[in-house]
Amino acid sequence: QVQLVESGGGLVQPGGSLRLSCTVSGLSLNYYAIGWFRQAPGKEREGVSCILLSDGTKYYANSVKGRFTISRDSAKNTVYLQMNSLKPEDTAVYYCATDPVGGDRTTGWGYDYWGQGTQVTVSS
Fold first, then answer.
1. How far apart are CA 101 and CA 74, in angstroms?
2. Which residues pair with residue 46 across a beta bridge?
3. String of b and e for 12-49 (b: at least 16 CB within 10 Å)?
4. Residues 65-124: pLDDT tens digits?
5. How is residue 90 annotated by DSSP?
6. Measured between alpha carbons, how far is 118 from 22 in angstroms, rounded to an integer?
7. Mean pLDDT across 56-69
8. Strand-pair partners of 19
9. How far apart are alpha carbons 27 and 58 in whole angstroms?
10. What's the CA gap between 21 and 43, in Å, rounded?
11. Pairwise CA distance, residues 35 & 105, whole Å
12. What is residue 30's predicted lDDT score, i.e. its pLDDT?
């Protein structure tokens, strides 16, 4: 049974930082990637970042490039999303998800296991 548990969300002022964590259990060693997605009220889900499990290659949405950093601690089975210089438009529920074979990292199509989500609110 694959389980993903996110943590680290909260309320932060514009320009502030948060670090999200996604701890994964029960995942096959053959999986392709783990990604972070977000969904704001009234908007479609969008891919934020993903990391390939084979070689650590990282991808970022243009909207977060230079501000967010994805990383992985294999010993802890955890993927992190460090978010700096946060903006009000980053406000959303953030989810991590697993990609078995190379799904669409911009929409999440093909990602099969999802966490419960963690709320990030950027507001003064």
1. 19
2. 38
3. beeeeebebbbbbeebeeebbbbbbbbeeeeeebbbbb
4. 999 999 999 999 999 999 999 999 999 999 999 999 989 999 999 999 999 999 999 999
5. G
6. 10
7. 97
8. 82
9. 19
10. 23
11. 7
12. 81
| Strands across the sheet containing 78-83 | 3-7, 18-25, 78-83, 68-73
Q: Which amino acid is at 106?
A: T
Going from the C-alpha of 102 to that of each of 11, 35, 40, 45, the distances in angstroms are 33, 11, 25, 18
Secondary element (H or E) of residue 19: strand 18-25
Q: What does residue 89 show for φ and ψ, rounded to 5 degrees?
A: -70, -5
User: Is the Cα torsion angle 52, 74, 82, 34 positive or negative in sign?
Assistant: positive
Residue with tokens 């966490």: 115
Q: Angle 31-34-38 (CA atoms, 0-180°, nearest 5)?
A: 150
Pairing outcome for strands 113-114 and 3-7: unpaired
Mean pLDDT of the chain: 95
Cα angle 117, 120, 124; round to 5 = 165
